[in-house]
Amino acid sequence: MSVSLKFDDELLQDFMQRFYGYGTYTGDYWFVGMEEGGGNSFTDICQRLHDWNRRGRLELEDIVAYHAQIGAERYFGPKPRLQPTWNRLIRMELSAKGLDTHRENVRQYQQKNWGRHTSTNCLVELLPLPSPSISHWLYAQHSQLLELVNRQTYTGYYAPRRAEHLRQRIAEYQPKAVVFYSVNPVYMDWWRFVAGVDFIKVAECDRLYIGKNEHTVFAIALHPVTTGVRNEYFHQVGKIISSTAMG
């Protein structure tokens, strides 16, 4: 009879409560996603938890240092591969700054200026646990935590708590722009709650919603890996964020 491997539930729970993503809250550009990708196996998740613990259980990690620790350096080495989600978020930031969005410039930005403690961006997630897809859920079989019995229970428990925390952090740091990248109706209400502003649909850009307060422009945009969406969409989003901030 096989014995199911178990997570360190104290560490796992602390990770879910305290880890939010990468970069710095002092960055001008924040990108808010649903959840981080990865987490394909028990071993992979244990590695992430172990290294997060060893590095001091930080709320925000330096993306390069952390990924080097967990052995995932292919996006930051001498000839980094463009990561499908990040490279299009980078295009938004570069466009908002009026900078070159040529492929090699995006690659260099990912390598040197993306999700660092010294960068101008902050990459955070509504939900804390990495997962390759919303249909994938291996946590219940490796944990005794009641909030992980299934994805619905987990989301119901953590989404409101983390949404409130992100709302508070935005009010505290007042970034120039916050981009929520998913127009899935399941998440749209969370984005509205975190932003605390009214959004309007932008006529000249497909499935883009913009809101604003006196400090911050908020955008709800398509996820970077949405089928059929081209780089130009993300360049346009960046330009609209910039023009809205100046307006």
How would you describe the overall organization of this protein?
It contains eight helices and eight strands. It has a domain of 165 residues. The protein is globular. The model has no long low-confidence stretch (mean pLDDT 95). Helix content is 41%, strand content 13%. The chain is α/β, with parallel strands linked by helices. 34% of the residues are buried. It has an eight-stranded mixed sheet with strand order 3-1-4-2-5-8-7-6, sandwiched between helices. The N and C termini lie far apart (66 Å).
**Percent range of helical residues:** 40-55%
The succession of helices and strands, N to C, reads HEEHEHHHEHEHEEEH
The strand line-up of the biggest sheet is 3-1-4-2-5-8-7-6
Question: Which quaternary structure do these chains form?
Answer: single chain
Overall, the morphology is globular
**Sheet/helix structural class:** alpha/beta
The largest pleated sheet is described as:
8 strands, mixed
Radius of gyration: 18 Å
Distance between the termini: 66 Å
The overall strand count is 8
Put simply, the count of helices is 8
Low-pLDDT residue spans? none
Average pLDDT across residues?
95
Beta-strand percent range: 5-15%
